[in-house]
Amino acid sequence: MTMLRGVLVVCVMWCTAASARALPSNASDASQGTVVGPVLGGHLFQPLVGHPMAFVMSSTRLTLGGGITSNLQLPIVRIGERIVLAPEGSLAFIATGAEHEQRIKDWLSVYVGVDVVGRLGTDVKALLSQGVNAVTSFDLGWKVRAYQSERMLLTMSLDLVNGSVTTVDVDRWVRGIVDSGGVTSTNPLVDTKPTITAGVSAHCAYAVSPAIGLMATVSGVYGESAVRGGDSKIFFNAGGNINVDMRPLVGIPVATTVGIVYRQNPSVDDASTRSDAMVASMRIGTTVSQHFALGVQVNAQNGEIGNGTHVLAIGGAVDMRFYY
C-alpha cells in the first residue's frame, strides 16, 4: 500500500505539472516561465505586416497579399505625334514573403527573409503606360534587447536589404522603336537593376494592460531604395500600432490591431515607387495560442508611382506567424 500511495502521488504531481504547461493563458505561461510568443506584461502582442516586431524570439512568418488601384489617372501615352491611349486605367499588385528569426541568446537574435512583389496594369492603357514591375528583396538582420521591464521592451536592430528590380517598360520600348526605327540592344524591353541598403532601427513595445499593447519603430536607412532608384542617400522611417485583445475582456480569442507607417524609402510592400509612402493598416487575428498567430490585414497606401502619377491603393494580406 505504501508503494501504491507513492505511485499515486508521483502521478498526481506529473499530471499537475503537465496541466500547468498546457495552460493557454498568456499570464499563466508567463508565471511558469514558458513564454515563447510576443508576451509582455500579460499581453499577447499581435504582428502587423510592414511593422517590425520589437521582441527577440524565434519565429517564422508567411505572408500572401495583393491590392489594386482604381480610376488611376495615367500620363498621356504618345507614339510619334499621335495620342494612342486615354490617361485612365488601374494597377494590380501581388505580394508574397517569408521570414525566419532565430533567437541565439535571450538578448540576441538573427533573422533572414525574402519578399517578392509584382505590379501589373490590369488593362492595355495601364500596361502600356506603367509596364510590369517585379521587386525582390533579401533581408538579413540582427536584433538585440537594450532594455526590458515588466511592461516595456526596447530593442535595436541592424538591417541589410539586397534588392533586385525587374521592369518591363512597354511605353519606353515602343518610343525607342519609333525613334530608332527598329529594335536595338540599347533599348531593352526588360531591365534589371540591383540595389542594397543598410539601416539601424529602434523598436519599442509597451503593455498598457493584458488587453492593450502599443508598438513603435524608428529607423534610419542608407543606400538606394529597392524600388525608387537614384543616388544613395539617408532615409528615415517611422511607424506605430495599437493592439486590442478581446480575450482578457470578454473571453473571445480575437484581437484587432490598427497602425500607420511612414517610409521615406518605399519598401517592396508599398504601391509607391517614386515618393514617400504612407500606409494605414488594420488586422484582425486570433489569440488562441501564444505559439501561433493567424490574421487578415487590410492596407490603404498613398504615394507616387512615377511621372507625377499618385495612387491610392487598397490591398489585403493573410499573415501567419509561428513562435518557438
Structure description:
Helices cover 15% and strands 55% of the residues. The longest helix is centred in the first third of the chain and has 21 residues, at 2-22. With 324 residues, the protein is α+β, with helices and mostly antiparallel strands. It has helices spanning 2-22, 26-32, 124-130, 170-180, 247-250; strands at residues 39-40, 43-44, 59-68, 77-79, 82-85, 91-105, 108-121, 132-148, 152-168, 190-207, 212-223, 233-245, 254-263, 277-286, 292-306, 309-323. The model is unreliable at 1-33 (pLDDT under 50). Strand 6 and strand 7 (108-121) form a beta hairpin.
Q: Would you spell out the secondary-structure blueprint of this structure?
A:
Layout: H1 2-22, H2 26-32, E1 39-40, E2 43-44, E3 59-68, E4 77-79, E5 82-85, E6 91-105, E7 108-121, H3 124-130, E8 132-148, E9 152-168, H4 170-180, E10 190-207, E11 212-223, E12 233-245, H5 247-250, E13 254-263, E14 277-286, E15 292-306, E16 309-323
Antiparallel strand pairs: 1-2, 3-6, 3-16, 4-5, 6-7, 7-8, 8-9, 9-10, 10-11, 11-12, 12-13, 13-14, 14-15, 15-16
Helix content: 10-25%
Shape: elongated
Characterize the main sheet: 12 strands, antiparallel, barrel
Give the strand line-up of the largest sheet.
3-6-7-8-9-10-11-12-13-14-15-16
Q: Give unreliable regions as ranges.
A: 1-33
What is the distance, rounded to the nearest whole angstrom, between the alpha carbons of the first and last residues?
43 Å
